[in-house]
Design a protein that fits this description.
The structure is a homodimer. The first copy, chain A, is α/β, with parallel strands linked by helices. Chain A has two domains: 2-96, 60s Ribosomal Protein L30, Chain: A (2-Layer Sandwich); 111-253, Alpha/beta knot (3-Layer(aba) Sandwich), CATH 3.40.1280.10. Helix content of chain A is 32%, strand content 21%. The first copy, chain A, has ten helices and twelve strands. Chain A has helices spanning 10-17, 21-27, 35-43, 61-64, 76-82, 121-133, 151-157, 172-181, 219-222, 242-253; strands at 2-3, 29-33, 48-53, 70-73, 91-96, 111-116, 138-142, 165-169, 185-187, 195-196, 206-211, 227-230. In chain A, strands 8-7-6-11-9-12-10 form a seven-stranded parallel beta sheet. In chain A, strands 1-4-3-5-2 form a five-stranded mixed beta sheet. The longest helix of chain A has 13 residues, at 121-133. The N and C termini of chain A lie far apart (48 Å). The A-B interface holds A 122, 126, 129-136, 156, 158, 160, 163-164, 231, 233-241, 243-245, 247-248, 251-252, 254 and B 122, 126, 129-136, 156, 158, 160, 163-164, 231, 233-241, 243-245, 247-248, 251-252, 254. Chains A, B: Residues 31-101 form the RNA 2-O ribose methyltransferase substrate binding domain. Chains A, B: One of its GO terms (biological process) is methylation. Chains A, B: It holds the Pfam family MRM3-like_sub_bind.
Chain lengths: 255, 255
Amino acid sequence: MQVIQSVSNPKVKNWKKLNTKKGRKTQEKYLLDGWHLVKEALKANVEVLEIMFTPDYQDYEELYQLQNVELYEITEQIAKNLSATPSPQGIFATIKTTPATTQIPTELTGAWLLLDGVQDPGNIGTMVRTADAAGFTGVVFGTGSADIYQAKVLRSMQGSHFHLEVRSGELMPWIAQFKKQGDPVYGSELNPEAVSYQAVPQAEQFALIMGNEGNGMQAQHLAETTKNLYIPIQGEAESLNVAVAAGILMFTLKK
Amino acid sequence: MQVIQSVSNPKVKNWKKLNTKKGRKTQEKYLLDGWHLVKEALKANVEVLEIMFTPDYQDYEELYQLQNVELYEITEQIAKNLSATPSPQGIFATIKTTPATTQIPTELTGAWLLLDGVQDPGNIGTMVRTADAAGFTGVVFGTGSADIYQAKVLRSMQGSHFHLEVRSGELMPWIAQFKKQGDPVYGSELNPEAVSYQAVPQAEQFALIMGNEGNGMQAQHLAETTKNLYIPIQGEAESLNVAVAAGILMFTLKK
């Protein structure tokens, strides 16, 4: 174990850079902040490269038993410097990013959530967490959606990205593949052809597309769906929060 | 219309104080930030006291046709000073707060959402918005829940608090009143007696209690429910976000 006491230590500077997309791309790793996430990473089948913790965490014997993980004791000041939250728990990890696969599995199984330009990191994270809970196989971060390795997305996912498949890229080939297999691709946009989500049968295998908070789905994706679903609104609210809508749809549609 | 150009103007100072619970209590009013919320207030049956806007908003002729509303032109600097967001739209209103009624309607109708110590302002606001969309009659902010007039709660409610009844106070008398009427009171906590939310019939009239993000419902409330519901989790996620869970339950249970 190495002790680092200065925020200007080159290692600290590099970890700090993982808060940017460019930094993550260059170093091919991302930063986890907080005990729950680090624990989820250790349980999961991912390559944990480094764990950094303040002296408070020295009690955690399990850290010392880890193989192939570099351990660093850091100061509270460094923890504050690295964290995107005002009061960090004082434990971090770096994880190897998986190279972006543009390749789509030749046979898709299960239910998949397709994010079409969803922007808010909290919404995105919550949707991945909900997809996990609903028994979905994977989530595709379509072009224009927020970055999966952003601190706020990671925080709201609560480790669910370790439990299901997470991909990113253009959605069109995914939609095409589902349709080729004969599986339904559901849009979620209120248009004249839309049907109530309660009118479609539950299924094990399908794709559900959720659109951008303000602008909805992209027209080219909308044109390719097998059905568009809407959630009937009884009160005077104009719409639902996208993560809530996704939750209702995922739990109702998934067999 | 009055023009205010200095952030140290006493009116500005008083408006600024509306960002605190104490300020709202003393002045018996609260602050709305943004055009959507101000518009919702004007449509609703509430007492709009003042509207403050930057010169950008002078086009909105409808403002000048309002009766009994004091209009103020303010500077962008004042707008930034008043707002809790980094880039305010430049329009605000103050609304008279309704005196806290501890009294419970002698006959409760429809479905009500009871918040048992829910803390996160975004979650609370989203839940009120979802309750509105699901056709609920009202929401009760139980003791220990975040304050309804907080900027972030107002922002996520998107004006839904104008569409349904919003009350605050101890939840016990509400639970007692529903039970007296013979209406179900559903808790949402996983315990050995809990049943799946899919196993209860839809109803028009019931109460649904959602608990604190970390600690769940208070034991005294849990002891008084007619049933506790849980949402079966298929994946490895440990739990659902409370606003997502509330959305699934509200839309499934409400006839």
